[in-house]
Amino acid sequence: MLLTVILTTQTNAASVNLASTIDCGGQRSSSAHYQQDDSIGGIVGVASVGVPNEVARHGYVGQLLEVTNLTITASALSVPETGSVQLGGFALLDDGTAMAVDGLHIIWNSPVVPVSTISVNGVATTATVAVDTAALVSGSYLGVYGSGSFLVLNITAQGTIYSFR
Q: What is the pTM of this model?
């Protein structure tokens, strides 16, 4: 039994068909544009493309992954003082792929001023600041520590201006 896989890629205005043949036991095939591992007996396999780095793992009962790096992200680059922002993460995996991590799945470290609180769901609430201040946040996902930042904006007048005559 012989399996032929045909992938179509679009480059500029041209369409290119790439064909590879995999024996009945399943093997790896690749080209400059893709890499695919297959096995016969069901719809299973791993297909990946280089740019952007995307991987599809067809037919696997469980997706095993190992996180190698975590970057904490905020839903906004800047937040007004006494405001809130949703935090999350971006995990780099051992196979070179990446995935978004919901704030609920990150174990948050204690907040540092100007962040007042971080909820279990990853919502950070900010304190009042006298000037625009960088907020540093950190946490871990599957045992890997990461950090990130966002800007807390001063939107209220701070202090009192005195005039002497």
A: 0.62
